[in-house]
Amino acid sequence: MPSSSSLLAVPLATLLLLSLSPAFSSAYNVSYDTRSLLFDGHRKLLISAAIHYPRSVPAMWPGLVQLAKDGGVDVIETYVFWNGHELSPDNYYFGGRYDLVKFCKIVQQAGMYLMLRIGPFVAAEWKYGGVPVWLHYLPGAVFRTDNEPFKYYMKKFTTYIVDMMKKEKLFASQGGPIILAQVENEYGFYESAYGEGGKRYTLWAANMAVSQNIGVPWIMCQQFDPPASVIDTCNSFYCDHFKPISPNKPKIWTENWPGWFKTFGSSNPHRPPEDVAFSVARFFQKGGCLQNYYMYHGGTNFGRTSGGPLITTSYDYDAPIDEYGLARWPKWGHLKELHKSIKLCEQALLSGAPTVLSLGDSQEVDVYEDSSGACAAFISNMDDKNDKTVVFRNTSYFLPAWSVSILPDCKNVVFNTAKVSSQSSVVDMIPTKFQSSSTSINKSSGHLQWDIFKEKVGIWDAADFTKIGLVDHINTTKDSTDYLWYTTSLFVDETEEFLRNGTSPMLVIESKGHAILIFVNQKLQGNGFGNGTVWTFKFKGHITLKPGNNEIALLSMTVGLQNAGAFYEWIGAGPTSVRVLGLKSGTVDLSNSTWNYKIGLEGEHHNIYETENSNSINWVSTSEPPKYQPLTWYRAVIDSPPGQDPVGLDMMHMGKGLAWLNGNEIGRYWPRKASEHEICVEQCDYRGKFMPNKCNTGCGEPTQRWYHVPRSWFKPSNNILVIFEEKGGDPTKIQLARRKVSSVCVHMSEDHPAASDSVYLKKGIVGDYKKKSIARLKCPKSSYISEVKFASFGDPVGTCGSYSRGECHDPNSISVVEKVCLKQNECILDLAGATFNRSSSLCGIGGLVRKLAVEVVCS
Description:
By secondary structure, this protein is of the alpha+beta class. The chain is built from 15 helices and 46 strands.
């Protein structure tokens, strides 16, 4: 919300109205016209932020919501996760991370609106797209089409959620925060695959939703033939050219992707803040009224909730708030300034259609004016290579390539999307040694005391069933576990040639995914896995066989169920072909042999990761735990790490598996490395259309090394950490790490427009803000600036953490910054003031636009 301290040419009454938080003390009417949502008949321009309640923990929710509000956000958006709530038919759960009502009320208490995307299909890189797995196994059920079993349960759950929200008076029509609800999700991509049944389903879903009488509009995102009763919306990296099918509907952007998700074994995608800001500014320039960041806080796919398959436990998404709940600088700050600038234009923007003027081949201005004299202009340069200078209303404006300048009074630029003035930061994962007040630390060696349980290879108890041929993994486990054992035997005649000549037969396995461990006679022979884009893979490797019977034991593993696509619920997993090559009889096909099956692991069966069941099996204690051993459970008792910084579990030296703390599911770990041959960048060029592989980092490195362990899961002492290792790793190198902002930086030029309301108020300047460049440095809460590590006013180069002086440098730079900033949590440096040496003799370069680069240490 803008503050009256902006002192722009906007009526004071309007500024005061915009600065108020939404009030929920009484019912209010939410409707819409062609231009925007209407609140009791008044138009509003809204910024929304996706925060998924089960991807964090309740202790984090107030801080996440407040940080979004501090970032200039009006609305919180979340999906409702059906399979997290209805564990079996009529068996509902709304506790812990799934306490939806608590989350909604936290949003309400923060004075923010809420967009509730009930779906109940969500996709969202969440397992099975959010639909309960049990629904697939009900007779005759087919997802997301004109299918009676599916529609019955979809309506039943939607009604259950709506009634819950009504009971708590959470809809706007009851005085609550919910202003929009969504039914279905991105169905337009797949509707045609279902034929006429798909079209009937779309109409049914809309009518079913509207019949709930919630008193606020319903939306359908990415729906290309939307029923008249719902608003169709856009999901994309860019939605400036999107138009609703009906001219009577407002232009809403439900998913602006500020980054992208990761898959195990891939590099890490990043989207530059300049491009995110460009896309948002263009959307509002072209008549948008509500924009939602998907994600604003991505969070964590705890436990086995990730979809994919092969999507990482981290769902960080390169979002403005990182996975651990810290503001991601400069993205968070740059977007905050963007939001302020857009809100200054609200009255003019919502007045009606703009006047659009061409200022060049790829340059244009959209001018919004109303009868009161309010005027706002957005000047864009869509050239992705060349900076331009344009003339608008007899004034010249410099536009960097691929940027938008915002003029809330049609005269002065308060923000340009390509000019980042927000601070950046260096965030480190600081290792912390395991501490324990119990006997878990060996006093003589100082090593952590581990308890060990070795999982049996193959059928660890009586087989669950025996069958000729290979079964589908998912149809067998119904996602009750990641694991399914397949075992059979192969007889080898003692006359086989390979037994004498030293050669080895070849085992060839084809599988639908997602990963597999191969054991022969209790010894691990190899492993295989899919790559996240092709759902089948082949393992081919030599195996050691002996004369007589040989046990072939395959541990098939899922790594997140399919979460989207036409008929996605029918996609299976597990081996489909098992052959042995190199025997004298030729190829032996074991696919149609008799196989014994066992669902899950013995440790899972005993729930040994839960604190109350931790002694249900015989653990073996040791300070020298076995290393690089497959199928091994590790348990240790640890203290909470010191301080209040967020915590990650470093699994760099482990293989693949699952982890728990005090019975809470941390999630799947797999420090699988990205290929060194992928294309990664050291510095991303924000200019031009963004795609997920444009600005990747981390080639040749683990996709995910650290795994978020929420602080609220720790007790002060006697915390039980349980690890199940599948392939083999070194548990002595497991450690906790604190995520800490070690330093913050700012790098900006003296001609940068300022957008800091507090500065305008302090300076008392009206209309002269365009000449003010303000550098702001702020350490995290409860810390202060302890050292100025670098400062240069002139032409410094580099990025945060690696600045260096250029040819032009004010030698007093560090002392100037120290005087203003040392021992402060936050400080403001006025580049346009007299504090720095601005004489032409400083550098002897005429017309040089000087810059300031500063890095300070936070302690």
